[in-house]
Structures are given as C-alpha cells and as structure tokens.
Amino acid sequence: MIKAVFFDLDDTLLWDQKSIKEAFVATCKIAEERYGVDPIRLEEEVREAARNLYSSYETYDFTQMIGINPFEGLWGNFLDDQDDFRKMKEIVPAYRKDAWTAGLKAMGIDDPEFGYELAERFPQERQNLPFVYEETFETLDKLKENYRLLLLTNGSPDLQNTKLSITPELVPYFEKIVISGDFGKGKPDQGIFEHALSLMSLDKDEVIMVGDNLMTDVLGANRAGIKTVWINRHDKDRNEVIPTYEIQHLEQLFPILEELK
Ligand SMILES: [Mg+2]
Fold it and tell me: Where residue 252 sits, what CATH number does that domain have?
C-alpha cells in the first residue's frame, strides 16, 4: 500500500534545463549585440568550457557525490555552512568569469572584462526565468488528497532553497524536503533514501520515487528497494537501470497509483 510519493525536483517538477537554456539565450544575446557573434555557438562554447573547468577543480568529486552540475555552478552562490561548499563559494566567481571568457575566446573575442559582465548577467537571467511544468501543480494538488509527499533533491541547500524561493508555491505540498548537501551524500546513494524513509516513518514498500534521472533517482531507489517511476519526457533511451514504471507526463502517475492500491 503506497502512502507517500517521493519527488525529485529538477526536471521532474521544475523545468531546470529550460531555465538554464533560456538564461544562456538571454545572456548570449548580449554578446551578439556587442560583437555580432552567433549566440548558439557561443552557448555551446561556454557550456564546453564550463564542463572542462568544473571537472578540473578540487571540488569536483564533492560536486559529483552531492549532485551539482557545471551549469548550477554558473549561477549558484553556495552559501552553505560546510567546508566543501565554502571552497565552492571561493571558486565559483573565477569559474564563471573564466568559462564565459573562454567561450568568447573560442569565438575569436579576447575580452575578459566582457566575459566577467556576461558571467554576472547569467545568474540574474537564471533567477528571472524559472519554469515549472504545466502539469506540476495540478498533479500535486490531486496527489496531496491521498498521499504524503516528500521532496528528495540533489544539490547545495543554498541553491536548491533559492530555486524553491523563486517558485514558493511548491514548498507547502511537501511534508519534508531532503537536500543531499544537508545529508552529506546524494542520490544514488542508498543512504539518502533510507534517511527519507525514516523521516516519514515509512517502510520501503509504502513509498514510490518519481524522477527524471535513471542514474540517480531510479538507481538509488532501486538500491533501497523502493518502487520507481521514471519520467521520460524527451523519449530518451533506457540504459541498464530498470525503473518499475516509465511515464512521459506526470498525470500518468494516477493509473499507476490506482493499480498499486
Ligand atoms: Mg532531476
């Protein structure tokens, strides 16, 4: 008997990839206006430079364990009270500037000052462009009548709470909000799922995990013996990780929950 639904946040309820994409579009447009560069190519170059830089820092293993991607590093502040987050807080200003400056350079533009300007602009654009899936609130409204809800998200508590403060309507639906940076390990670690179960005083058979990421949401819940729903909105191919159910739209959760009654 399912009593609670555990939800992932990014790209399950919040459309983070679209917010990042639109923030790139808005920021790269400024470079197009200034230098006439192709904004789509600039975005690709900055993304590439960001990924390379991000993996070169001493904090990389930590970001992998907690689950913080390079593009979150381009706008997060990481004002968290923990040593690795303090290191990130020190690293990210130069990281942003260097990523944007390198992207410009790849386009033949040597202008670190402008790189800095774009690096500072991107976080503002990301903050101003939150996207929630059209079905998110309707689904949560229906679910809350019959199920307890928990949010289980990977990331920096400061950054994840920033996302939630930009979309404050989400918070009241959840009895508990678990952020990996607070717990110390991220999905797919089995421990964070067991932690979430104990917070709700529920057994693994009494919950179902819904998320978009096979390698974190589904793999971790599988390890903890929790049933999973993989939300695959963009028709991605499955890998070796096998979810209990696969859906394309959150509304498809309801027949699954009916079946499990
Ligand atoms: Mg996700």
Answer: 3.40.50.1000
Mean of pLDDT values over 92-117: 98
State whether the Cα torsion 154-156-157-163 is positive or negative.
Answer: negative
Q: Ligand 1 centre from 39 Cα, in Å? A: 27
**How far does residue 12's CA lie from ligand 1's centre (Å)?**
5
42: containing domain: 16-127
Name the amino acid, one letter, at 217: D
Q: Which among 102, 127, 152 is the end of a domain?
A: 127
Question: In angstroms, what is the span from residue 52 Cα to ligand 1's centroid?
Answer: 22
* Structure-token pair, residue 149: 């809800």
How confident is the model at residue 49, as a pLDDT? 98
DSSP strand pairing (207-211 vs 4-7): parallel
- Per-residue model confidence (pLDDT) at position 25: 98
Q: Check the CA dihedral 34-36-37-43 and report its sign.
A: positive
Q: Are residues 207 and 225 in the same domain?
A: yes
State how far the Cα of 238 lies from the Cα of 128, in Å rounded to an integer. Answer: 33
pLDDT value for 180? 98
Give the global pTM. Answer: 0.95
Burial category of 201 from C-beta neighbours within 10 Å (exposed 0-12, middle 13-18, buried 19 and up): exposed
What is the Å distance from ligand 1's center to 36 Cα? 35
Query: Of 82, 101, 127, which residue is a domain's last?
Result: 127
10-63 pLDDT, tens digit each? 999 999 999 999 999 999 999 999 999 999 999 999 999 999 999 999 999 999
What was the pLDDT predicted at 75? 98
Residue with token string 């049933």: 227
Q: Does residue 164 sit in the same domain as residue 249?
A: yes
- Residue 219's pLDDT band, with cuts at 50, 70 and 90, is very high
